[in-house]
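forwarding from the other thread:

> can someone predict this with flavin mononucleotide?

sure thing
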Amino acid sequence: MNTTVETILNHRSIRKFKSEKLTKDQIHTIVKAAQQASTSSHVMAYTIIGITDENLKAELSAVSGQPYVKDNGHLFVFCGDLNRIYQQASIEEQSQMQESMESTEQFIVTTIDAALAAQNASVAAESMGLGICFLGSLRNDITRVSNLLKLPEHVIPLFGLAVGYPDQDPEIKPRLPLEVVYQENEYATDKQHALIRDFDNQLTSYYQNRSSNTRTDTWTEQMIRKYSHPIRMDVTPFMKDKKFNKR
Ligand SMILES: Cc1cc2nc3c(=O)[nH]c(=O)nc-3n(C[C@H](O)[C@H](O)[C@H](O)COP(=O)(O)O)c2cc1C
């Protein structure tokens, strides 16, 4: 196995970092790796905001309710961004672009672009001996995050990425069986139940035996609980206010 695949297969989220900050060189290497991800039609529909102001970090940490948003080597916030394109256009061109900019299709483009960039950043960081944790918890109060970062229309905060030197060594979390997530030629529902039952048992044993935060749970129960309680329903009107996903 080559070292790139090894890095990817050894991924686990890190939620406790040493206090050492990333250097400018490390930050730039991670951002360059993010930028080199594939991007839909070369749109590069994202902006990455690095948070160096400790007060701002503390505010974002309060939104997320997670201390590692504040205590890390560096915090990146990944934003979907069609604003920079919009700003290049004349008033007349902007009105021609409006329908496309507000479409679900372009909303998907921005979220995919940002996610691909972030995953490249993560793999780069992990290959440099750093740990990472994605932070969807910034969407706990998406309007507040948007205001804190002074995001204009056509720019939306999607998630954070905490990066730093790991101060913990968590076990690798099991994934669904390959046969469940990779299928050939058609979608097969019927084979999934038995495989997922096995996975539930495997995950129960992982939760019971891991070195911290042990609990009794299965993947199925966790997912049904998750999708039975809608969260962050304010995200829908927020996106529309920002001129995304309106049509
Ligand atoms: C888009 C996204 C948002 C996430 N948000 C959070 C978060 O807010 N807080 C957190 O502790 N982990 C967060 N995670 C990490 C996931 O919980 C984690 O990747 C998943 O449980 C699998 O564990 P692993 O990364 O250790 O393999 C997020 C992951 C993704 C991809």
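The first strand starts at residue 46 and ends at 51. thats all i got for now
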